[in-house]
Amino acid sequence: xxxxxxxxxxxxxxxxxxxxxxxxxxxxxxxxxxxxxxxxxxxxxxxxxxxxxxx
Length: 55
Prior knowledge:
The protein has 55 residues and is mainly α. It has a domain at 14-51. Helices cover 42% and strands 0% of the residues. The protein has three helices and no strands. The relative contact order is 0.07.
């Protein structure tokens, strides 16, 4: 038995099609900036404490 997401029909109007074409034609690169003040944590216990997990 298929779920609704597999049986739903997609409908598009002129505005949504034009927006899709515009997005696909966009050749701009995103503005990426280097991240500063990074600390690499390798201690497993410290990582678990940061996420609130207990052993």
